[in-house]
Design goal:
- By secondary structure, the chain is an all-alpha fold.
- The chain has a domain at 250-459.
- Helices cover 75% and strands 2% of the residues.
- The protein has helices at 3-18, 23-43, 67-86, 92-110, 114-123, 125-135, 140-155, 158-169, 174-177, 184-197, 207-213, 216-241, 243-248, 250-270, 274-294, 298-329, 345-358, 365-380, 382-408, 423-441, 444-454, and strands at residues 49-54, 59-63.
- It has a two-stranded antiparallel sheet.
- α15 (274-294) runs antiparallel to α19.
- The radius of gyration is 21 Å and the shape is globular.
- The two termini are 38 Å apart.
């Protein structure tokens, strides 16, 4: 059996086992099983999977990997263990939902059959809905319902568009569907679905409450992986099936994305709750990634794909350290606390490292991706590149203001809960530190294969 099939089946096996194991063994087993897909990816998943599923409808269980999908598969395999490490309960259902979500993501990022692509796309909605609704904060039901409504509304016509392609061409095979001219309304439906899930401005109404109310594990999965499903949709479906529409609508899509970068940054600057600040910062950075895709320039597209990976790593780290701080403060509100570097020095400096990664300090991962995006935008419009660059400076302001307010102002009175992080948290953070520095200092192993694939796309 091809290794790619084992990559898909491993989380499904863990899903079934999660209901059978005793609670005491559940966390350790789940963590170990979450590392297996990463080992499979390192071993190699080059051999495709292609089984006839429903021959009468020409539906194939067809999975295949190129350099672009491999980036998103690695990101999924990296983020899932950290999401599990942030979960402190013993619910069989929670672990099962994480593993079924992981299987759906692996299938989505490698699907070469449009029916399969749509099945995985729609399927990943339910595990996340239940994670928000069951393990979220006080307003979790409202946040979960808003999330569900937005996702369903964005994808309501997607099945109709997929069927339209099938009835016109008689196949769901993405390789055979590529290169055929399609009507604008079909492209619009696909783009709308991707825009809501990413989300692209102004389809972000579900994001602040979902990110804030979800548990740390849920927020990591939403921000680090779900948003990348929308980005991957634009890359895979947009550039392969609808390149003419992507090129024609580039100015409009670019305007939405740049507005989203500014709107997210301004909203983050207005926050007095650091979890909401990180949520809006994530929204701003995701729209920055979309800017690179909508510029319709190869350099910017390479930067966007790399930046999708970088953002997933950095936002995972930020929500982890925010969770560790919340455990010690009992709240995510900034106002009552200051000068915590005196009491929590290790947490302070690890948080500062991840903040500097977020603001694209040279030598860290986000600097490479954002530089490529800005360079590609500069070729198209120096003025837009200059404007986007000022927003990057804005992100430095609101992120460092959080650090200044919480950690570096005059110390507030000490509390018994002000206990610094221990070796366990440091060990959890170290792999993320390594990834940030590795991509920041030596991005070539990621950039070279991405560059080769994107060159094949006709501009």
């Amino acid at each position: 059996m091809p290794a790619l099939m084992w990559l898909f089946l491993t989380p499904l096996i863990a899903f079934g086992a999660a209901f059978l194991l005793p609670r005491k063994a559940l966390h350790s087993f789940s963590l170990l099983m979450s590392l297996v897909p990463l080992l499979i990816l390192i071993y190699g998943v080059s051999a495709p999977v292609n089984y006839s599923w429903f021959p009468a409808l020409s539906i194939h269980f067809h999975l295949s990997v190129d350099s672009i999908s491999l980036i998103f598969l690695y990101l999924t395999a990296i983020v899932i263990p950290f999401a599990l490490l942030s979960y402190k309960g013993e619910s069989h259902l929670f672990y099962a939902l994480v593993f079924i979500l992981e299987a759906l993501l692996f299938g989505f990022f490698s699907a070469r059959d449009l029916f399969l692509f749509t099945f995985f796309w729609e399927g990943m909605l339910l595990p996340l809905y239940f994670m928000i609704n069951i393990w979220g904060g006080p307003n979790r039901k409202m946040a979960a319902m808003k999330f569900l409504i937005y996702m369903i509304a964005g994808s309501a016509l997607l099945v109709a568009a997929v069927l339209s392609l099938y009835f016109n061409e008689g196949t769901f095979d993405l390789d055979r569907l590529a290169g055929v001219p399609y009507t604008a309304w079909v492209a619009f439906i696909f783009f709308l679905a991707f825009a809501v899930k990413t989300p692209l401005f102004p389809f972000h109404g579900w994001l602040p409450d979902a990110y804030f109310e979800a548990s740390t594990a849920g927020t990591i999965l939403l921000s680090a992986i779900l948003s990348k499903a929308g980005i991957y949709g634009f890359v895979r479906i947009g550039t392969e099936l609808f390149p003419a529409q992507m090129a024609a609508w580039s100015p409009t899509l670019l305007a939405f994305a740049i507005t989203g970068v500014f709107w997210g940054a301004f909203s983050a600057w207005m926050q007095r709750d650091y979890k909401r600040l990180i949520a809006y910062s994530s929204f701003s950075h995701v729209n920055f990634i979309l800017v690179g895709l909508f510029v319709w320039n190869q350099t910017a597209e390479v930067g966007s794909i790399l930046q999708a990976f970088n953002h997933g790593v950095t936002i995972t780290a930020l929500f982890l350290v925010a969770d560790w701080l919340e455990i010690r403060l009992g709240t995510t509100t900034m106002n009552p606390f200051s000068g915590l570097a005196k009491y929590l020095p290790k947490l302070c400096w690890i948080t500062l490292f991840f903040v500097l990664s977020s603001v694209a300090l040279p030598g860290m991962n986000n600097f490479v991706g954002e530089l490529l995006i800005l360079f590609g935008l500069y070729v198209k419009s120096p003025w837009l590149a200059a404007f986007l660059g000022t927003i990057v400076i804005f992100s430095v302001v609101y992120m460092l203001r959080w650090m200044q307010k919480v950690y570096f102002e005059n110390p507030c009175p000490p509390q018994s809960s002000f206990v610094d992080i221990k070796a366990k948290e440091i060990l959890i953070a170290l792999p993320l530190v390594f990834l940030i520095l590795w991509v920041g200092l030596y991005p070539s192993p990621l950039l070279s294969p991405i560059d080769q694939v994107t060159k094949a796309i006709t501009r």
